[in-house]
Write a sequence for this structure.
């Protein structure tokens, strides 16, 4: 493992994770969560677990982001309560 | 309450980080897992199952039960999404949008109940996503066959390279979801109907369990693929490889159909007529 690469990836994982929790906009949160998944995928690939990285890229970063976006499209901008 | 939540979060996180200090270092050859578990699979995989990718053989053969019930979990997720979201007949949208193909004008028809008859110069469109983009549409149309080909490669080549039924199935489902997004949900549903999707998601799980049951019928344990050599012209080691392939195909079909079902129900609010 190259520690510079590791540092960048881990920092981005933490930033994306906290960002997707903190951000108010739901679409932004979904996209940030996808970015978080993709960074996790890169992390798995760096550690040599290519099968896990493949699954994370297709399920976590790919399809689940689409599901989140599809669900967010049916919400309104402001809450009613 | 908020401060209490933050406190619990921080305490749990600190304990997890503290506990992870006790782990053996990454890639340590003297850790318990690397001493006798991993070498057993790495050395014996090729002679026992003739599958070069040890991950695939562990997932589908040595730990076949785990993968079977993982597939069942995916299937259960699809069924629960369907039960929660799907609206059955009698409930209709209050309005539909149509586009005049020649001029690009958009028409909103408020008519509860029946839809307009199929007209040649008007095409139905999705209410949520109105812009029409020829470049995007054509490009996605061009791209989808290649995505599907790659997905089939991932399923079939899981023995030799990273990948397998789960990843390939997700990519195959994603290609159909891309079709539903780039065109409209009606044309995606015309390609592969809801009933077909339901049958596929059941059939995938049934293929997996059926392969196991076939081994049982042939006189071995459940999911002991070596028994398949009695009906297929392969030796017992090759039969394990064949059994893994059958199982991966089942997983791929089940995952593909489930992903499409979840997307359709989510994106169309359960009406299953128009999506994003």
């Amino acid at each position: 493992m190259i520690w510079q690469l590791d540092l960048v990836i881990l920092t981005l994982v933490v930033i994306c994770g906290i960002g997707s929790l903190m951000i108010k906009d739901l679409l932004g949160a979904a996209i940030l969560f996808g970015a978080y998944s993709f960074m996790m995928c890169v992390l798995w690939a760096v550690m040599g677990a290519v099968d896990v990285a493949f699954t994370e890229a297709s399920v976590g970063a790919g399809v689940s982001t689409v599901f989140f976006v599809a669900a967010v499209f049916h919400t309104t901008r402001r809450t009613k309560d | 309450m908020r401060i209490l939540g933050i406190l619990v979060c921080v305490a749990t996180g600190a304990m997890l980080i503290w506990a992870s200090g006790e782990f053996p270092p990454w890639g340590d050859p003297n850790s318990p897992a690397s001493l006798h578990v991993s070498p057993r699979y790495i050395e014996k995989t090729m002679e026992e199952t003739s599958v070069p990718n040890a991950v695939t053989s562990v997932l589908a053969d040595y730990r076949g039960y785990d993968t079977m019930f993982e597939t069942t979990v995916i299937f259960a997720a699809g069924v629960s999404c369907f039960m929660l979201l799907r609206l059955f007949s009698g409930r209709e949208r209050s309005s539909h949008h149509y586009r005049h193909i020649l001029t690009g004008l958009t028409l909103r028809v408020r008519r509860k109940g029946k839809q307009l008859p199929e007209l040649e110069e008007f095409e139905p469109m999705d209410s949520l996503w109105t812009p029409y983009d020829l470049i995007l549409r054509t490009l996605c149309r061009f791209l989808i066959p290649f995505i599907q080909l790659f997905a089939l490669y991932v399923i079939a080549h899981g023995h030799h390279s990273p990948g397998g039924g789960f990843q390939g199935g997700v990519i195959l489902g994603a290609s159909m979801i891309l079709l539903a997004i780039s065109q409209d949900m009606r044309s995606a549903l015309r390609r592969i109907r809801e009933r077909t999707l339901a049958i596929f998601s059941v059939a995938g799980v049934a293929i997996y369990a059926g392969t196991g049951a076939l081994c049982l019928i042939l006189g071995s344990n459940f999911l002991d693929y070596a028994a398949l050599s009695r009906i297929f012209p392969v030796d017992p080691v090759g039969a394990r490889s064949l059994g893994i392939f059958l199982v991966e195909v089942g997983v791929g079909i089940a995952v593909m159909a489930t992903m499409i079902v979840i997307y359709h129900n989510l994106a169309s609010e359960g009406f299953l007529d128009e999506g994003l």
Remarks:
- The mean pLDDT of chain B is 88.
- The radius of gyration of chain B is 24 Å.
- DSSP finds nine helices and three strands in chain B.
- The beta strands of chain B are 95-100, 106-110, 122-125.
